[in-house]
Each structure stands twice: as structure tokens, then as C-alpha cells.
DNA sequence: TTTGAAATCAGTAGCAT
DNA sequence: ATGCTACTGATTTCAAA
């Protein structure tokens, strides 16, 4: 997109895996000065390539023992925006996509247990006007969880 | 799980959204000293509540214009581990879950364009022994992308 | 893009609650 | 057991080249 070179990619590769690494270490690994890293990172933020940072929290530690994907079918696709507005109010929904395929939309939902999940499905999601059906895909085991790959060439 | 109190939650709430915020600011917001934050964060790391950190990169900036979920049906559920091992080698696959519902497993895949996606599906994923069918749910728009909610009580 | 100085911040230890 | 103060060294920021 906007002239991202190999140094940028190398920096992204490192800091996307560890947000707290001192920039001088990044600099050493990349073979440039510390200031170069600062300037590049700032530029990547300004360009919108970097959209934030955060510590990763283990869901189980917070009592979220159930991770599920919920496919939602809508009466009409055009109701999508209104439904999303409602879904925004449910904190347990961490992702929502408008999708091709068997569902109108696909959401990712964390719940504490089956009872909590049941409550979210029956009393929250299925109550939203326009939602005609939901299908629940419970994740019994998450086997892969990576960051997006930083491509070597562009 | 292991005695996470409200101060812990307040800290997690802040640093899960911003890994680079100075701990002195976290301390100010929580109304405790910096050292307390250090101790708490270190403890949360030791307990496995915090599992890492990272900068968030905008997929589009790296040329990934297509985000998809791919449901995979296996000949036998018991082949799951072997299939996961193969999927590990495909960098574009960033998530993989063993699921209840219509598929044996659900994966999240980033691709540059439809041609790239086609290649991943036909030449990589469907070639894996045990995979009998795939169904592709292309995300036309991602409307919600949050961190996991930090529960107020627990 | 680099360097170096000034300002800010992190991490530690010992004390107090 | 947890938080606080104070200290030391590391890191970030910002100048000029």
C-alpha cells in the first residue's frame, strides 16, 4: 500500500509479537539506530498500519471457559447495520463479520459456561429484530492463534 | 480463577487496550503507586493471566484484502491433530478451532485476493489427507473487533 | 538516518501498613 | 500479604548535523 519496506516489515514482525520490547533491542536486531525505530514506528502509526497495542489476556483466567462462533441468519441482509448496533451492546461479542456463505453474519462470542451462553443466545441475540435463526459452533479446542503474517515481499 | 481482584481487573482493562502506556499513568488512573502496578502485572504474568503483548497491525496495510473463515469437514474427527499439524505450516491461517456444529473445524484465513484464497483452498488445505470438504465464509465487512471483556465481579 | 544530552520511565529493595 | 517511598540505571524524546 503506502511504501512499506523491508525494514518496516522487520520492525512489525518484532513488535507485533512483543509490545514492550525496548526499541534499542529492536534497533540492534534490525541493525539501525534507536531513533530510526522510533521514527518508523511513529510513521507506521500515522499511516494507520499500526492500529493499536495491547497485552493479551487469557480468557480462561477471567472465567470465560467457552469460546463460540455464532452464525446469524437475518430476515433481510439490509437489516445488517441495525443488528450490528444491537450486537455492539453485548460485551461478550468480540467479533462480528458480514459474510458470504450459509449465514448472513458470523460472530465470535465468549461465555463463562453453557448457561451463560444459553442466556446470550436466547435472551439477547435471538431477541434482536431481524434475526431469524442462529447456529452455534462451540470451540472445543483452539489449536492455532497467531498474528497476521508479515509478508516478505509486497 | 486464582484470586483476581478489582485492582487486577482495572489494570488489565487498561493495559489490554494499550501495551505501551507508562505504568505511572496506570498507577495514577488506579490510584496506587507505580510499584504496585509492577508487582500486579508481574504476578498476572506469572499466573498466566497475561499471555503476551503486541502491536496490532492493520491487515489491509500488508496487502491482505480478504478475511475469511473456512469450515473444514474431516473424514474422521480423530484425524484432527494430524490436520492441525499441516495447517500450522500455512502462515495465512491465524486461527484454528475444533468445533461442534456443521464443521469438524473452523479456521480463520487471511488472503491478498481471491486468487490467493483459491490457491490456499485448492492447493493447500484441500490437499491435506483427511479433509473431505471445505466451506468458505468470506468476511465482506468486519464490524466489531474488541478485546475480551474484563468482568466486574467474579 | 545518526548521535548525544536531557527528561522521563522502569525495576528493585527495604520499610510500613 | 500488599502497598509505598526512594534510589539507580535504562529508555525515550528531542535537538542538531
Automatic annotation (TrEMBL), chains A, B:
Keyword Transcription regulation set for record: yes
Keywords, ordered alphabetically: DNA-binding, Transcription, Transcription regulation
GO molecular function, one term: sequence-specific DNA binding
InterPro entries linked to this entry: AsnC-type_HTH_dom (IPR000485), Dimeric_a/b-barrel (IPR011008), Tscrpt_reg_AsnC-like (IPR019888), Tscrpt_reg_AsnC/Lrp_C (IPR019887), WH-like_DNA-bd_sf (IPR036388), WH_DNA-bd_sf (IPR036390)
Xref: PROSITE patterns: HTH_ASNC_2 (PS50956)
GO cellular component assignments: cytosol
Gene Ontology annotations of biological process type: response to amino acid
Domain named HTH asnC-type: residues: 4-65
Record's protein name: Lrp/AsnC ligand binding domain-containing protein
Amino acid at each position: 500500500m503506502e511504501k512499506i519496506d523491508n525494514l518496516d516489515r522487520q520492525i512489525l514482525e518484532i513488535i507485533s509479537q512483543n509490545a514492550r520490547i525496548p526499541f534499542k533491542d529492536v534497533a540492534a536486531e534490525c541493525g539501525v539506530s534507536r531513533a530510526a525505530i522510533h521514527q518508523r514506528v511513529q510513521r507506521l502509526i500515522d499511516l494507520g498500519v499500526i492500529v493499536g497495542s495491547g497485552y493479551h489476556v487469557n480468557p480462561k483466567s477471567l472465567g470465560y471457559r467457552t469460546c463460540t462462533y455464532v452464525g446469524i441468519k437475518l430476515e433481510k441482509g439490509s437489516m445488517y447495520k441495525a443488528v450490528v448496533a444491537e450486537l455492539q451492546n453485548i460485551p461478550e461479542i468480540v467479533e462480528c463479520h458480514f459474510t458470504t456463505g450459509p449465514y448472513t453474519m458470523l460472530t465470535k462470542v465468549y461465555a463463562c459456561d453453557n448457561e451463560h451462553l444459553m442466556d446470550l443466545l436466547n435472551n439477547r441475540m435471538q431477541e434482536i429484530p431481524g434475526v431469524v435463526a442462529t447456529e452455534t459452533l462451540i470451540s472445543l479446542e483452539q489449536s492455532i492463534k497467531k498474528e497476521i503474517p508479515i509478508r516478505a515481499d509486497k
